[in-house]
């Protein structure tokens, strides 16, 4: 029991980050039908920039937090304006996939240039002894990570369901034409979706870095895992990404715990392939159009 | 009867697009399928060409049921079609578009294609030119298809369909976006295809002048149901057709 | 504008310097040595200090008048931690630059990849990677030497220490890279010799974020100690997880642990972690009469003075390799065959940074377990265990 | 009030509207009728700014709207109820209505918008009953009312209605049309109504235009058009005179 | 094959024959060998992307399969190298078919991620169960045929470029055949293609298999040339590298694969001096190409050339 619980906690920690990346995928997917394969880079960006503001510039925690999120938001905006917007009209999916990959390499390159290859970390948000629950141990930072993820989910829920801008974004993803007729600026919505996804990714990075350290090339793995999470929960459904992220985290942890730790990445990928193959979008993609999307 | 539609139904997410459709197309005729927007005409064409699956019913082509046969095999049986939204191969040259139609009857194995040095048979290219001549596009043969004006793209689609050597051509709004002169040429061409090549034509079209001018038989669809069938003059007088188009009193 | 002025001034200065550099300050032909190092890519933590070391040493030697009056020219190629690139680099050094010897590559894989090339070209290669297969079987590795201690020596040092402490059951956790894999094999292979059983064999990926699952599993398998074999962030995460879980069993790290950076990153979680480290890391804590001390002192202070960072064990491997080649050149001149022979026969009781080398036709590494000191982390610093 | 002059529109490569000119007077209901593919929807989408015209002028109360974005056009007071209704299916009825007020939403107008919503509910009591329901679960007629209600939330001066009768049962169609008259009265709207269902449309209209393959071929008062044989010809390709001859 | 391509191929052949005679520098020839290997993998992807309109982020998987299977068969089972190469290609094609049947029903992003998943799974398998695990293994026999063992760089240069010319001939024939037109048709409109009687599923699978054959052949040649393998060379990064080769060279023209391979292989040789920013430069080049040179170098040059002729 204790063992199982301990595996569960480990799964929750990694699952949180997967969920946040997965949500980021979905937000962009809903507004543009693009999978932003640079999503994981924003997690890395969050962790490294936080370190930069905290340690290199010696700024207080709250200021660093704001500046980090601001940086992520700006880079998200830059990505959308510079690489997505000029190509969106062309509607060439192949091109869109490649341009997000290109941008992820670009971010990685910049981060490596700035930070080198060393891992970075900073102190947990709260100092203190780990907490024991039924014999299983959970660190305070893990609680932070889970809590922040939960908070993000709640905030996003409120944003999409209680604010006009959020509703407008949802409207856009549901019916572009009707949204435009309501006076919603679609271009702004797309921009906003990139911005929000970037910030969510960065939040994940900020929270996880004290536990897992952060280095410039962690992003690709996170993108793949986050995408698995999004696929598992059903692409486009942000609640799905949360469920998918935590499920994936648990599965990895339980695989490592009960089967073999060398296989946990393969398990994640196999599940993703299985889902892709069993529920394909169909050659003419009609099922895509007909499916009702929901946050 | 070259084509028989028996009790075909189809619904999309709870909305019944087609309800027990029954009608048949006589060999060698131009048969028009008309009806207001959303009546289900394109859906029916898609079902006949196999791009969409029907929920129930049966379709017989030359007395054989083609239910469940994949679209590319239906083409091999002799069903060709054009598209309302123009599905030409824009990055291929005009004559190459025709070649893709000729592929059906002249294909070689993948491996053989890779080791054959001389490329495409001269015969085929000459054949493609003669089809282009038939649809009046020979002078544009080396242009990229995407650079043609709409009227010529429609002709190209028609030529490409002809290249598969079909018995039945499904035309989905071939006159959309054409001007008066082009429409007139098109109607002559469609008649020529029927008369000279003995190909049956099932035509979905909104341009009533065209429809009334060339059709041998008309089936009228409204709300996914056949509401009338007959020769053009009969249809024009049919009160339920008038009310479907003009509204009820 | 100011920058422009500065830049042009700089260029002019350089140009003048170049023109007026006395061309005949070395009247003799330069000796060329090549180096293939993973300066970038996954193994850059190795290649970076290695490159810095070699460049620094070459400068020192040239400043001191070169080797027997010949200036030394070192050509460093970056292999990007990629075997293909290493092969290309080896070809370039041999065919184009016609070097007398090659130092590197940094990793076992890259070293293995270029062994056929250097063997065919009859060029001595002094690898700075650890894998035993680099120099064994020695009859097939006629031209190959290495300066990094064997993984097995580090394992021996750890198991020896455990044996003295009465530890019989260990759980190992290794990273799924070449480094971790080599360690894993050595750990499993050598355990019986010391009467130790490996009760758990866990692994993790280089980008994993949490290893608590594996650690808990090791503990529940009844292990009396954990050995983590990795480099990079993994060893810090394991340390932090180990500390947080309060497992109550000691954590041993591999010889990759020897960087102050790890202590910084792990913070107080690192207290009590034990690892076999080369004396380079703890040079200031070894007795003055130890033959390695003066070498280590000079190397570390030179390096830190120049690069403002610690050289680490890996920079030391490059130091040893470079100095061996230089000594051979000094004694036998620019002859590839003679250089090889000199290293094989004359590097005896030769103090380097990695230990005291004893090369022989049977051993092209010349180091054993004695190259390591068992070191524990105490108050955020290393302390040598007696 | 609305003036359109010499409008040329290409839809992709299709030359869909050819030198179209029309005008609406304040407070009128004007029908635009014509068969499928005549360009009616294209015309509405061009007025709404979804499609950019190649040339020509669109002006509302003297203000040129020709090259404004859809967002700005909504703000200028033109709302469209699109063909096929386009309600946000997985949002609640109330959210749909609220989104209609997007263009005038701000902290200050929050209260006002609440009042507007109540007004819509007064008009369509059925929507009030189902305010928490997802819009996709409404019947076709209810969705049409929702789409109209949503469009009204932007406080338009001019309402563009695209085929409000499409896909509805005849009794519901009558209900919808009677609502249109009611709305015009309550909100002092001007309405441009695009319909295939010509008779029903013309019955409630003051004037009408007939569009055929991108050209306006007829215009006149509703009664005149109802009687006109050319209208039938435009729909059915029937030359009534020729028929007489036979 | 068109006349232009035939002439191009002829000159390529001449060039390949005489290049090692003129440039005797083994280093440059080695670069030439790796250009060839990358070009071979890229050629398959180029047909897959440019002609069948399918994306793959898993080419490294087939490349790795080819390398490992051939190396293991010849090293551990003592099979003659040509036979082990052949079996490795067969294995890769078989796996390609199995993967293609479910994958090619997917579109766009889904397909990209499915192939990426496949590539990574292969990478994990090589890491876990490949001989030597992550450390890799060496002493793979060099390429030999009819008792003659290839040893020198020049021999390998000829061997690999011979395969390139063969593959190129096959690819160009295919593209300019009726089947090739059908492939282009699929790219432009799948909907219209099926109604013309083109069996798009079957054709797509065949192209996918072709791309896996090229990749696995390249992998096998790599294995027997370098004689050492480790999983690190067969990761997602290689798939992306090949993607870059295809994009930069231009995916609508097979020659683009060679042009792209030349640029991408030589680039790091040139960038050796810029070690800290090489990833950054890669990213910049790729982004730049996607934004401003969407067609790639070869089609761009052809366009400029044709414009000049017209003038």
Describe the fold and architecture.
The complex is a heteropentamer of chains A (295), B (249), C (386), D (246) and E (311). Chain A has a two-stranded antiparallel sheet. With 295 residues, chain A is mostly helical. Chain A has a domain of 180 residues. Chain A is globular, with a radius of gyration of 19 Å. Chain B has 249 residues and is α/β, with parallel strands linked by helices. Chain B folds into two domains: 162 residues, P-loop containing nucleotide triphosphate hydrolases (Rossmann fold, 3-Layer(aba) Sandwich), CATH 3.40.50; 79 residues, no CATH class. In chain B, helix 3 runs parallel beside helix 6. Chain B is globular and about 60 Å long. Chain C is of the alpha/beta class and 386 residues long. Chain C folds into two domains: 195 residues, 3-Layer(aba) Sandwich (Rossmann fold), CATH 3.40.50; 146 residues, Response regulator (Rossmann fold, 3-Layer(aba) Sandwich). Chain C contains twelve helices and 14 strands. Chain C has a five-stranded parallel beta sheet with strand order 2-1-3-4-5, sandwiched between helices. In chain C, helix 2 packs parallel to helix 11, helix 8 crosses helix 9 and helix 11 packs across helix 12. Chain D has 246 residues and is of the alpha/beta class. Chain D is built from eleven helices and ten strands. Chain D has a six-stranded mixed beta sheet with strand order 6-7-8-3-9-10, with helices on both faces. In chain D, strands 2-1-4-5 form a four-stranded antiparallel beta sheet, covered by helices on one side. In chain D, helix 3 packs parallel to helix 6. Classes of the chains: A mainly alpha (295), B alpha/beta (249), C alpha/beta (386), D alpha/beta (246), E mainly alpha (311). At the A-E interface, helix 3, helix 4, helix 9 and helix 11 of A face helix 5, helix 10 and helix 12 of E.
């Amino acid at each position: 029991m204790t063992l199982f619980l301990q595996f569960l906690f480990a799964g929750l920690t990694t699952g949180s980050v997967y969920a946040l990346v997965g949500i980021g995928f979905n937000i962009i997917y809903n507004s543009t039908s693009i999978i932003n394969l640079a999503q994981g880079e924003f997690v890395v960006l969050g962790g490294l920039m936080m370190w930069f503001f905290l340690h290199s510039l010696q700024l207080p925690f709250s200021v660093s937090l704001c500046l980090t999120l601001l940086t992520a938001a700006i880079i998200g905006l830059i990505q959308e304006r510079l690489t997505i917007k000029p190509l969106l009209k062309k509607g060439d999916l192949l091109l869109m996939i490649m341009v997000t990959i290109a941008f992820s390499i670009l971010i990685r390159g910049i981060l490596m240039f700035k930070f080198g290859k060393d891992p970075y970390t900073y102190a947990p948000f709260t100092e203190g002894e780990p907490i024991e629950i039924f014999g299983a141990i959970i660190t305070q930072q893990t609680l932070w990570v889970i809590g922040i993820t939960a908070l993000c989910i709640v905030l996003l829920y409120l944003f999409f369901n209680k604010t006009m801008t959020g509703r407008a974004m949802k409207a856009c993803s549901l019916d572009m034409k009707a949204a435009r007729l309501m006076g919603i600026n679609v271009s702004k919505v797309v921009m906003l979706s990139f911005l929000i996804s970037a910030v969510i990714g960065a939040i994940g990075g900020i929270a996880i870095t004290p536990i897992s350290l952060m280095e410039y090339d962690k992003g690709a793995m996170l993108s793949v895992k986050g995408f698995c999470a999004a696929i598992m929960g059903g692409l486009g459904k942000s609640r799905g990404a949360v469920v998918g992220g935590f499920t994936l985290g648990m599965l990895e942890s339980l695989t490592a715990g009960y089967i073999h730790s060398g296989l946990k990445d393969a398990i994640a990928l196999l599940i993703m392939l299985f889902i892709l193959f069993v529920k394909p979008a169909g050659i003419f993609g009609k099922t895509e159009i007909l499916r009702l999307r929901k946050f | 009867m070259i084509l028989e539609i028996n009790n075909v139904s189809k619904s999309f997410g709870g909305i019944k697009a087609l309800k027990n459709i029954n009608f048949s197309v006589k060999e060698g005729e131009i048969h028009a399928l008309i009806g207001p927007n959303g009546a289900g005409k394109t859906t029916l064409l898609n079902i006949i060409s196999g791009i969409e699956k029907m929920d129930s019913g049966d379709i017989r082509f030359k007395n054989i049921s083609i239910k469940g046969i994949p679209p590319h095999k239906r083409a091999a049986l002799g069903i060709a079609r054009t598209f309302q939204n123009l599905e030409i191969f824009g990055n291929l040259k005009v004559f190459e578009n025709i070649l893709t139609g000729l592929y059906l009857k002249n294909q070689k194995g993948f491996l053989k294609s890779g080791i054959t040095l001389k490329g495409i048979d001269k015969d085929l290219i000459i054949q493609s030119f003669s089809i282009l001549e038939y649809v009046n596009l020979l002078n544009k043969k080396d242009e990229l298809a995407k650079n043609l004006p709409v009227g010529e793209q429609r002709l190209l689609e028609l030529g490409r369909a002809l290249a598969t050597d079909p018995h039945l051509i499904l035309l989905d709004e071939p006159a959309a976006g054409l001007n008066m002169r082009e429409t007139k040429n098109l109607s002559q061409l469609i008649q020529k295809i029927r008369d000279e090549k003995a190909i049956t034509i099932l035509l979905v079209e909104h341009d009533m002048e065209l429809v009334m001018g060339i059709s041998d038989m008309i089936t009228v669809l409204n709300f996914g149901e056949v509401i009338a069938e007959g020769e053009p003059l009969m249809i024009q007088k049919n009160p339920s057709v008038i009310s479907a188009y003009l509204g009820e009193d | 504008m100011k920058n422009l002025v500065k830049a042009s001034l700089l260029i002019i200065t350089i140009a003048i310097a170049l023109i007026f550099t006395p061309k005949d300050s070395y009247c003799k032909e330069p000796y060329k040595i090549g180096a293939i190092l993973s300066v970038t890519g996954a193994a850059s933590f190795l290649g970076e200090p290695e490159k810095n070391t070699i460049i620094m040493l070459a400068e020192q030697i040239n400043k001191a008048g070169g080797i027997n009056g010949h200036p030394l020219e070192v050509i460093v190629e970056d292999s990007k931690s990629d075997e293909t690139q290493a092969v290309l680099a080896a070809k370039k050094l041999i065919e184009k630059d016609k070097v007398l010897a090659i130092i590197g590559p940094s990793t076992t894989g890259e070293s293995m990849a270029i062994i056929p090339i250097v063997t065919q070209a009859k060029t001595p290669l002094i690898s700075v990677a650890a894998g035993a297969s680099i120099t064994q079987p020695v009859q097939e590795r006629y031209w190959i030497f290495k300066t990094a201690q064997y993984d097995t020596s580090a394992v021996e040092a750890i198991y020896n220490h455990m044996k003295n402490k009465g530890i019989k059951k260990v759980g190992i956790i290794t990273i799924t890279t070449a480094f971790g894999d080599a360690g894993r094999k050595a750990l499993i292979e050598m355990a019986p010799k010391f009467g130790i059983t490996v009760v758990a064999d866990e692994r993790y990926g280089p980008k994993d974020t949490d290893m608590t699952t594996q650690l808990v599993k090791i503990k529940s398998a009844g292990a009396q100690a954990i050995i983590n074999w990795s480099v990079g962030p993994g060893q810090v995460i394991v340390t932090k997880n180990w500390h947080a879980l309060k497992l109550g069993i000691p954590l041993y790290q591999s010889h990759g642990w020897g960087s102050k950076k790890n202590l910084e990153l792990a913070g107080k979680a690192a207290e009590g972690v034990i690892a076999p480290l080369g004396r380079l890391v703890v040079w200031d804590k070894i007795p003055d009469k130890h033959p390695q001390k003066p070498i280590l002192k000079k190397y570390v202070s030179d390096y830190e003075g120049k690069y403002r960072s610690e050289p680490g064990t890996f920079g030391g491997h490059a130091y040893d390799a470079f100095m061996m080649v230089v000594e051979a050149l000094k004694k036998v001149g620019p002859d590839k065959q003679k250089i090889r022979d000199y290293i094989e026969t004359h590097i005896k009781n030769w103090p380097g940074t990695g230990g005291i080398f004893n090369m022989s036709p049977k051993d092209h590494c010349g180091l054993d377990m004695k190259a390591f000191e068992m070191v524990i982390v105490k108050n955020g610093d290393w302390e040598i265990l007696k | 009030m609305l003036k359109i002059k010499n409008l040329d529109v290409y839809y992709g490569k299709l030359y869909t509207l050819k030198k179209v000119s029309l005008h609406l007077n304040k407070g009128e209901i004007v029908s635009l009728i014509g068969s499928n593919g005549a360009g009616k929807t294209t015309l509405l989408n061009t007025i709404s700014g979804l499609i950019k015209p190649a040339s020509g002028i669109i002006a509302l109360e003297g203000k040129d709207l020709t090259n404004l974005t859809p967002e700005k056009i909504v703000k200028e007071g033109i709302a469209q109820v699109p063909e096929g209704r386009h309600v946000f299916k997985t949002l609640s009825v109330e959210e749909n209505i609220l989104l209609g007020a997007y263009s005038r939403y701000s902290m200050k107008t929050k209260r006002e918008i609440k009042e507007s919503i109540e007004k819509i509910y007064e008009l369509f009591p059925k929507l009030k009953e189902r305010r928490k329901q997802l819009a996709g679960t409404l019947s076709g007629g209810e969705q049409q009312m929702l789409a109209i209600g949503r469009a009204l939330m932007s406080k338009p001066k001019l309402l563009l209605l695209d085929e409000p009768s499409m896909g509805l049962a005849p009794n519901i169609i009558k209900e919808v049309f009677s609502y249109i008259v009611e709305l015009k009265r309550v909100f002092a709207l001007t309405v441009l109504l695009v319909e295939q269902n010509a008779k029903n449309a013309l019955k409630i209209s003051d004037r009408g235009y007939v569009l055929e393959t991108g050209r306006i071929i007829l215009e006149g008062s509703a009664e005149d058009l109802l009687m006109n044989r050319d209208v039938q010809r435009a729909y059915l390709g029937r030359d009534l005179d020729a028929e007489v001859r036979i | 094959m068109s006349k232009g391509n035939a002439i191009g191929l002829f000159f390529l052949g001449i060039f390949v024959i005489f290049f090692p005679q003129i440039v005797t520098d083994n280093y440059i020839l080695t670069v030439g060998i790796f250009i060839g290997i990358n070009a071979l993998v890229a050629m398959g992807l180029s047909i897959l992307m440019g002609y069948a309109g399918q994306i793959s982020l898993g080419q490294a998987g087939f490349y790795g399969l080819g390398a490992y299977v051939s190396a293991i068969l010849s090293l551990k089972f003592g099979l003659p190298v040509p036979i082990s190469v052949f079996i490795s290609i067969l294995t890769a094609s078989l796996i390609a078919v199995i993967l293609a049947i479910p994958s090619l029903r997917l579109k766009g992003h889904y397909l990209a991620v499915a192939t990426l998943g496949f590539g990574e799974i292969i990478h994990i398998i090589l890491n876990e169960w490949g001989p030597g695990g992550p450390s890799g293994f060496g002493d793979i026999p060099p390429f030999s045929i009819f008792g003659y063992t290839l040893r020198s760089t020049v021999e390998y240069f000829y061997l690999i470029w011979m395969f390139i010319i063969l593959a190129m001939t096959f690819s160009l024939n295919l593209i300019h055949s009726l089947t090739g037109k059908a492939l282009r048709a699929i790219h432009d409109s799948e909907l219209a293609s099926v109604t013309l009687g083109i069996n798009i599923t079957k054709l797509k699978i065949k192209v996918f298999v072709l791309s896996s054959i090229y990749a696995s052949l390249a992998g096998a040649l790599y294995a027997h040339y370098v004689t050492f393998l480790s999983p690190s060379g067969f990761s997602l990064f290689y798939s992306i590298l090949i993607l870059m080769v295809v994009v930069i060279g231009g995916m609508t023209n097979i020659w683009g694969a060679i042009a792209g391979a030349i640029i991408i292989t030589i680039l790091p040789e040139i960038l050796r001096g810029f070690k800290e920013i090489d990833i950054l430069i890669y990213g910049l080049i790729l982004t730049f190409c996607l934004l401003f040179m969407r067609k790639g170098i070869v089609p761009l040059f052809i366009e400029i050339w044709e414009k000049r002729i017209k003038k």
